[in-house]
Queue: 2 jobs
Job 1
Amino acid sequence: MSISPQNRSDPGRGNRGEAPARRGRRRGAARRGAARQRLTGARESAAWIERGIPHFDLLNAEALELIEHNAETVLEEIGVEFREFPRALTLWKEAGAGVDGERVRFPRGLCRSLVQATAPKEFRQHARNPGRGTIIGGDRTVLVPAYGPPFVHDLDKGRRYATLEDFRNFVKLACMSPGLHHSGGTVCEPVDVPVNKRHFDMIYSHVKYSDKPFMGSVTHPERAGDSVAMAKILFGDDFVANNTVLINLINVNSPLTFDATMLGAATVYAENHQATIISPFLLAGAMSPVTIAGTLTQILAEALAGMAYVQLVRPGAPVVFGSFAAAVSMQSGAPTFGTPEPSLILYGAAQLARRLGVPFRSGGGLCAAKIPDAQAAYEAANTLQTSALAGVNFMLHTAGWLEGGLAMGYEKFVMDADQANMLAGLLGGVDLSENAQALDALREVGPGAHFLGAAHTLANFESAFCRSGVADNNSYEQWRQDGSLDAARRANVIWKQMLRDYEAPPLDPAIDEALLEFMQRRKSEFEDRDY
Amino acid sequence: MTDQDANPEDEEIILAELDDGELVEQMHEDLYDGLKEEIVEGTSILLARKWSADKVLNEALVEGMRIVGIDFRDGILFVPEVLLAANAMKGGMELLRPLLSETGVKPIGKMVIGTVKGDIHDIGKNLVGMMLEGAGFEVFDIGINNSVEDYFEAMEKHQPDILGMSALLTTTMPYMKVVIDEMVKQGIRQDYIVLVGGAPLNEEFGRAVGADAYCRDAAQAADVAPAMVRARQAGG
Ligand code: B1M
């Protein structure tokens, strides 16, 4: 599962590269080295997955029009609150919306036309390693680690509050995972650093320990400003002014409410031409109606209002239509995952985003399990598959998620990252080249023989099948001999090995110093505060 | 057995025609079914029959909600049903509350609850409030994003037994300590029971900020809160 971070990829290079042509005999050691690397599953990181299969279109046009109509009714009749953020109200008034206190009501079609007029269909998010810059939208899928957990979990030490060291570890693991295209944002919350200063260390860790694209802080407009300032040190002022280098998670305080924290952060990012993911975050039953159609209506209304607001702040600022939908347990109020209804919602929301013409964020390896057990695996697999088939462009929470997002699991991360590789295989679709048609192989082998030694097989076997680095497919006896390890225990071995193998991608020492200097200066400008 | 007895569901029940024992049992059923009007009616009938307010409270309402609580904990009753039951209970309590204070009976308890500053998560807090209302508490929910001043103002105004604080973010949960420290500073910490909760907290964190207890969920809060108020009342 390890990969040396020096291995760079061409942007967009999918995982189904051309079959390597066999070049006669290779010298012993080199051949052996290459084979061993294959054993550890080492592969280059792609910068995204290029979709080669159709979307799973759940709803027909009539159904989608109905939901779009209802969403406009919600926007027109009920409206959306923009709380404690007068600037939003001013902008909405100017745009022709009705403003009553903090409630904004939108003439039918206003939000949709604002979004469609200026929001990009897709956009590039740059990384400090140009080969790892990604494109969000269109037929691409970008897989991103989980976001937000205050706890971490591993088999050795159990569950505990996350620290900055854990944060760095997950950035390193994501950097080394070929199936993950992004470093993420709050991969876990470094609770050992004061609340009002931890964003500095989080951004710095993403820059220092990874060369994949990453996310900015949203917990305070000032912290969003610091994120932009640090990005400027890394990429240069001019570059940041004209390019997207940060993508940022703006949750709607559903139902139908945006709060000042999120609006403040969204505004800072929009002004700086950085991307925001406007995410209705619905626990259906608590924050939205219990039905799929009702929830989809609310998702669309909220996403439209948020994305349109961003376009008012800065026309053309990249926005992503987000959706995080789970159901609550009606027995306790607790969020549940991997169940059919959120999958249906996800399929529908992806269609609504495509019709609108903006990138879509959803999904991930979601589960409510506390440990990397069977529940964790099947709940996550359900959502990962759904997200892939639905056509998610930015798949936050792909790896590590446990306990409804309360814990980031080391073993779970490795298991999910392994599945991320599989998703690339699935989405790659069916190769119909002459080589893939394999008539030669069929001719060569003919009836009654086998393909294992066929020239076609020899030429293609290395890249023919996705191979799991976690699964055990050996005989029972072999498995016993290897210690009778279950998947979680095998993953435990893998993440430790990955951290041992990790090598930091080189960072210009002048930039490193400038970042450290900036952090030190900013941190000394105000007292530590724990809220 | 008559035909009617065989089919009690179809029977129109006239509460006033039931004897005390039957009525109390019926009120337990009605609480379970979340029938507010019936609970209000049952409460007034018992009062008219010269039951003391605290007898009505304990035997009819609290006992009924105890059953609701057990079935909620065991996953038999669902949140919307408990919400209805708690609402029905509240209806009865509104009649009883003035009588209870007249007769000097110690109420089950009052609680101020709110989510801390910077935090807007409130689903869990709302559930806790609901469960405590169901347990007979008078609950003052001061909403989300509460500063020290907001909490102090609410405590001053409502004089609760319990201050409940909720936080769902690691970036906001330390604020609980800010509130508790200020209570200590102003010499009022001992006047209140402080309960804290929220998914990113744990037992240890509850202790570290100086709360009296950490509650892992709403059902547990509804067990802990009355017990702590009782213990405090007994202890003087
Ligand atoms: C006596 O006093 C008491 C006693 C017991 C008490 C009590 C008080 N309070 C609670 N209890 C206890 O009893 C309750 C009932 O049994 C229980 O309450 P709970 O609240 O735990 O349980 C509820 C019944 C159901 N649970 C919930 O309602 C919370 C679920 C999760 C998924 C969650 C939700 C729903 C939301 N969120 Co937020 N959210 C998450 C949560 C992850 C999780 N699994 O917990 C968490 C907490 N959120 C997080 C984040 C990051 C954020 N959220 C945000 C926003 C939101 C929504 C608005 C979308 C929504 C809240 C809507 C609402 N009206 O409450 C943002 C912050 C907004 C803000 N300023 O506060 C934002 C910053 C995201 C963003 N980038 O926009 C993460 C925390 C990060 C951290 N490091 O601390 C998070 C763990 C999810 C994640 N992985 O990202 C017990 O804890």
Note: Chain B has a mean pLDDT of 92.
Job 2
Amino acid sequence: MHKKQQVLSSLLQRAATTQRTLVATQRAAFHASQTANVEMTCRDAINTAMCEEIERDPNVFLMGEEVGQYNGAYKVSKGMYDKYGPSRIWDTPISETGFTGIGVGAGFMGLRPIIEFMTWNFSLQAIDHIINSCAKGHYMSAGDLKCPIVFRGINGVSAGVAAQHSQCFASWYASVPGLKVVTPWNIEDLRGLLKASIRDEDPVVFLENEMMYGVTMSAPDHIMDKDFVLPLNKAKIEREGTDVTITAFSKMVGFSLEAAEILKRDFDISAEVINLRVIRPLDRNTIVQSVKKTNRIVSVEEGWPQSGVGSEIAALMMESEAFDYLDAPLERIAGADVPMPYSVSIERLAVPQVDNIIKGVLKACHGKKQR
Amino acid sequence: MPKAAVTNKQELMAYFTRMTLCRRTEIVADNLYKAKLIRGFCHLYDGQEAIAEGMEAALTYEDAIITAYRDHCQAICRGDTPYRVLAEMMQKRTGSTAGKGGSMHYYNSKNNFYGGNGIVGAQLPVGTGLAFALKYQKKPNCAVAMYGDGAANQGQLYEAANMAALWKLPILYVCENNLYGMGTSNERASANTKFYTRGDGIPGFKIDGQNVLVVREAMKFAKNWCVAGKGPLFIEFSTYRYHGHSMSDPGVTYRTREEINEVRANRDPIEIVRKLLLENSWASEGELKDIEKKIRAEIDADVEKIKNDPEPYPEDLYTNVGIGKHYIRGINHPDLSQLEY
């Protein structure tokens, strides 16, 4: 539950001090006082979004391993079984192929399932249902079949869980027509994009990040509105800049913003950070317009480089008018092209860190005249 | 379980007519495939018509059905027409799925028919989801997930059946055992060929699938079982397909012509109904032959008309990928599809 009341007064008191705000929006103010903010963990953002949608629409239900009586493998669905009971919160056996197919069939008949994968690595067991049974259904049936389903779970790198539990699936699922692929970063994204995904008529692959679950973030309090939804085709410029465009999604948005701070402070480089929010459909327009302004681009992702999201953005740079505005080639930051190792000493070298992003930006900005 | 069926002239005439419609559609599809007007995969159902027909006699369109790719007759029995079914295979815009689906992808959500699925076994968890929805929505209906003896070895069947039993879902797993999964006989594929027992603790039974009345009574019993909240059943129908697995399989390398002819002579589903009608003097040979001739003429006329129907337009390539408009890239950039991004 969010600590809105306590936090609000302490925030107003702290209005004058610098704080590391991770969300940019300010309402146009007639007066000088701070916008009312809410603080919560990413975990709670997901929990509240699911609860509200379950309360709003009787067809919405949550299904997955340990989501009910265990309160969620990562405690994301904490309290939901007690609140809504076994008719809305379904504990399954360890049967990904089975329960994913069940979700798809339920979706075809008009229910709105939320299918949780304990991690997206386990979706490989069920990928046939996501792609062949679900994503292609609307097309093969010439519009007859619809499946308003959300598949969600943790994606990408956790900490020390090694090769079979650390893969990022953003680019795999984003290559499939018929799916939407959503990659939230902060609590505003998690609430707005998840509520939008549950309400959306298309099947949605919703990729969360375990490392962010416990992170407390703040956002304008309008995100707590029960009908707060974000569009599923728009990126967000988290930080405006003039010298280079950084595209990122999920946890890498936070790293990119940290890098942007350091780049400004130490190198006087003004970086524009784009939170992609949705990989499919990708908000190509926002990326292109940004590059037309900055003339340089760095793409950041956690997943493997080959055929990754950065590859798609590089292709966009070639195919769009952005090409004529580039002063340097696209710089691609991605996870190392290896299965994830275990020991932290090399795990750290397999996943992009803030230094890697700074290094990439410096390379992209090489030769840029400083004002 | 029922021991007898009660029927009358009207029922049998209706079964005879629609099974003949199904049979003729499949035979015509065979000819069209050989004439290269149908392409890709084409899996024919002739020999198995009593199962599709008998099921419909026991169910309503409020009950849901899902099957795999041998689906032309289920599509017809769920309310589609031979015209649309053939037009689809003939790649016409006037086909059931506007030329987008083909032989393996027929649907009719209004009549609760969910395909038409190309991946062997996938229809089983998805069908279990249909049953899940029916129970969730508190409807007094059941879902039927059809599969073959080949698909009986798919692990996902047992994952789904486990959940169906756990949650008492109103699902009937109907195995159309036509003795061969493509070119592999039951004995070469399955350690346990008693497919009705493969549900482990879930009850099941095996029954003749060639007699439409037997199928009907079995399905009535099974539906009542489901709707009473007793959970899933495994039903195995003994049946046979005259054609090979698909149009690319002559169907005689792994079985004998004698075997095929024996079924045609003694266990043909349409002949069984014809015999009942004649024995009870509910129809004459001539009347039944007239029905067959009429159906043959109608479908032939349909085919001639379909030949002149339009194929999908280029812009149809890009429709119904998802709901609502979004950027779709064509082959080249920019291309016909280019919606603004």
Note: Chain B has a mean pLDDT of 96.
